[in-house]
């Protein structure tokens, strides 16, 4: 391997305290950049960075979570679920602002969570926008341009199959037919030895005792 600074060849294998270490990501020789084991230990194993408290309370949701020794120096005052939710809500709100942040049919804009993305042409839909907040902004922006914003009521009315509802309203006897003709109970089997009613239809005996007694008759 050649050093990037002095172009001298060097080996990535190094013996430290009678233990061989392989430094695979190293790009410079040990003369240009010496290997310091103590420095690496200070970064990742500095006990002064570990807080004395065993539990931390999340600022947003207020949940108390335990501290783990594997996450030294990576403690945050916000839990992981709240961090993901804040990013998700921020990205979705930014996309809603591109479409005006209000219902395109009735103009509702009081609660942003009640607004949904509706694709004008379902054949052009590639993914659901609400669950794809981790994608690139360019791909999200292209997908949003295929949609319009609708509130919950307008969205349900748009997808509602009016022909089925009209048929039920015109024929109210369909609802009462279920009361006149209840479901028939299927006949259950009987144990071959004790003649008790079986719980499962596919069984022939109620228990293993009846099976053994009938077999040794």
Give me a quick take on this structure.
The protein is α+β, with helices and mostly antiparallel strands. It has helices spanning 37-44, 80-98, 137-144, 152-159, 162-170, 173-180, 208-215; strands at 13-16, 19-22, 55-57, 64-66, 115-119, 147-151.
Give a verbal description of the structure.
With 217 residues, the chain is α+β, with helices and mostly antiparallel strands. Among the domains are: 68 residues, no CATH class; 32 residues, no CATH class. The chain is 31% helix and 11% strand. It contains seven helices and six strands, in the order ββαββαβαβαααα. The strands form three sheets. Strands 1-2 form a two-stranded antiparallel ribbon. Strands 3-4 form a two-stranded antiparallel ribbon.
Mind describing the biggest β-sheet? 2 strands, antiparallel
Percent of residues in β-strands: 5-15%
Q: In total, how many beta strands?
A: 6
Report the principal-axis shape: flat
Derived structural class: alpha+beta
* Rg result: 34 Å
Give the spatial strand order of the biggest sheet.
Answer: 1-2
- Share of helix, binned: 25-40%
Key terms for this structure?
217 residues; 31% helix; two-stranded antiparallel ribbon; alpha+beta; 6 strands
Secondary-structure blueprint of this entry?
Layout: E1 13-16, E2 19-22, H1 37-44, E3 55-57, E4 64-66, H2 80-98, E5 115-119, H3 137-144, E6 147-151, H4 152-159, H5 162-170, H6 173-180, H7 208-215
Antiparallel strand pairs: 1-2, 3-4, 5-6
């Amino acid at each position: 391997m050649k050093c990037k600074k002095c172009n001298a060849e060097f080996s990535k294998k190094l013996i430290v305290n009678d233990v061989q270490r392989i430094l695979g990501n190293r790009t410079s020789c040990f003369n240009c950049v010496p290997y310091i084991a103590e420095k690496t230990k200070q970064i990742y194993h500095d006990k002064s960075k570990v807080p004395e408290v065993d539990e931390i309370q999340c600022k947003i949701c207020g949940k108390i979570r335990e501290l783990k020794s594997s996450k030294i120096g990576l403690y945050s005052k916000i839990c992981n679920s709240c961090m993901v939710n804040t990013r998700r809500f921020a990205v979705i709100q930014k996309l809603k602002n591109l479409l005006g942040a209000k219902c395109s049919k009735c103009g509702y804009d009081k609660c942003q969570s009640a607004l949904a993305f509706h694709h004008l042409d379902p054949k052009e839909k590639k993914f659901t926008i609400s669950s794809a907040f981790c994608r690139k902004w360019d791909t999200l922006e292209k997908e949003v341009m295929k949609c319009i914003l609708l509130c919950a009521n307008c969205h349900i009315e748009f997808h509602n199959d009016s022909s089925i509802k009209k048929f039920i309203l015109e024929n109210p006897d369909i609802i009462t037919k279920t009361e006149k003709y209840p479901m028939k109970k299927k006949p259950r089997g009987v144990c071959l030895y004790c003649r008790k009613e079986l719980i499962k239809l596919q069984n022939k005996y109620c228990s293993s005792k009846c099976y053994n007694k009938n077999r040794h008759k």
